[in-house]
């Protein structure tokens, strides 16, 4: 008989606490704060990193050319 009492007390301790009404007092977004000099400097474009920029459009073009060549080879082999 002691076991069900123990389990129910254990369950009540492990049950998460209901949310407090305080969380409604805080806005969902933080207040806007102006960026400092360091943050502005970090967001500026860095010339040293320019050569590592994404070449997404070039990759798309090369991929399309590769797909066309693959189709040409497959069609050429099947005929």
TrEMBL record:
Residues 1-11 have a biased composition (Polar residues). InterPro entries: SDH7 (IPR034573). One of its GO terms (cellular component) is respiratory chain complex II (succinate dehydrogenase). Residues 1-27 are annotated as: Disordered. This is Succinate dehydrogenase subunit 7, mitochondrial. The lineage of its organism: Eukaryota, Viridiplantae, Streptophyta, Embryophyta, Tracheophyta.
């Amino acid at each position: 008989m002691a076991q069900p009492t123990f389990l129910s007390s254990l369950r009540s301790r492990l049950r998460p606490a209901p949310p407090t009404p305080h969380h409604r007092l805080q806005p969902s977004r933080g207040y806007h704060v102006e960026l400092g000099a360091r943050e502005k400097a970090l967001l500026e474009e860095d010339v040293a990193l320019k050569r590592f920029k994404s070449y997404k459009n070039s990759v798309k073009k090369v991929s399309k050319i590769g797909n066309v060549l693959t189709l040409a080879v497959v069609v050429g082999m099947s005929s």
